[in-house]
User: What shape does this take?
Amino acid sequence: MKDCVFCKIAQGKLPATKLLEDKNAISFLDINPVNHGHVLVMPREHYETIMDVPGKEFGKVMEMVPSLAKAVAEVTKADGLNIFQTNKPCAGQTVPHVHFHIIPRHKDDGFHFGWRQGRYNEGEIDRMQWGILKALG
Ligand code: 5GP
Ligand code: ZN
Assistant: This one.
């Protein structure tokens, strides 16, 4: 897609510190890492969000993730690791080409998600299940 930074990286028109790549997917180091060794993995083809990627194609991108995660954890001597993904600006997406973050984590590294967790009122969880299953078809 024209003007997409990550399409340009995928097409070799912009430089990136690349790691694994194949015809479906490409991975490279995030230029502004949460921690050193922060990697991005994405499909070569342009899709804005995960809701736009066909399941099969998404699977081919995900195939790369475990080996990358293992290598990143080993090299950075990580105590843990997050796989993180954003869709649309309200969820923190700044580059509208779907991608996964692989973030090596260290004890007391100061990075917090700060999740706010709620609860369901009586019956709401069942209605939610019904609605999602219906949408799945
Ligand atoms: P998002 O906020 O969309 O989930 O993540 C986008 C990520 O891409 C950010 O962590 C940002 O640092 C990274 N990023 C943005 N532009 C570039 C770039 O040109 N090269 C690389 N390597 N990373 C980028
Ligand atoms: Zn793109």
About this structure: The longest helix spans residues 124-136. The radius of gyration is 17 Å. The chain has a mean pLDDT of 97. The CA atoms of residues 102 and 131 lie 31 Å apart.
